[in-house]
Amino acid sequence: MREPSSPAFRRLRVYAFDPSASTDLRTATMNAAVIKVPWEQLEAGPTGEYLEVIDVDPASDAFYEPVNLNSPQLLAQDGHAPSEGNPQFHQQMVYAIGMTTIRNFERALGRRVLWAWRWARKDDLTAYKRRTYIGKLRIHPHALREANAYYSPQKRALLFGYFRASGEDVGNNLPGGMIFSCLSHDIIAHEMSHAILDGMHRMYLEPSNPDSLAFHEAFADIVALLQHFTMPEAVKNQIGRLRGDLSQRSLLSNLALQFGQAIGNYGALRDGIDKIDRATGLPDARAIAHVTEPHERGAILVAAVFDAFVTFIEPVWRT
């Protein structure tokens, strides 16, 4: 909780998108963003009321010194400067974007965010009587040496991986360079949304039908996409480049561009604009009937929501 005499916000530097946007002269200046997160009493980690960042790297058998965001030097300069090589900035990044996502949910819900309880074993018929309250969600910025990041319902934690970019077609990335999923604004917001949604309704993670997991993925992608529009400088930059036409693919519609390019995806990992059928020149209206993979099926809902958002908001920018 915030003391009455404490500041209202803590200013922290982050990547508006991911490190790849800083290698492009057209987006480099707006990618180093400063965001405000609610002020709270923090321990090194950072560890606060909602989140506990624990930076253990099992693959390297390393433990990185936890960042102390209460340091006068860091308070004076809005935290560490964005850096791919500084583990303490990685810790700062996951905390800042995580708390921003939490704040946005609490504004929408009108209440506090709660994490899912930890239950006893599923094969125990009396498990519902023995559940453990989870006060803090754990975040591990360097948990995996692989091209992956995910929310673990068992551990009640976010686990972020890191890996080397493929040797060919890696976009703005250095071939063989290290890619950290914990430095992607989109990936952090996406995984945080999974954790928050699990706290709201734990059964959404049960694959009872093709739409249950697809909804989870779509919901997390929608949150990550719309969170782009909380970055004023990034929005101004991209709208200028697009001449106000948000129906074009851009950083505002992309999700995890660096990650997607690094695994040879020829672009973002996913996109808020629907794929076009080359035969008809239109989106595939029959995709809902045959697409079952959760991310791909969820992309149908993401595209519909993003299209509705653009249709509604674009006239405002054009006036």
TrEMBL record:
The organism's taxonomic lineage, starting at the top: Bacteria, Pseudomonadati, Pseudomonadota, Alphaproteobacteria, Hyphomicrobiales
Source species of the chain: Bradyrhizobium yuanmingense
Name of the protein in question: Peptidase M4 C-terminal domain-containing protein
CDD domains, alphabetized: M4_like
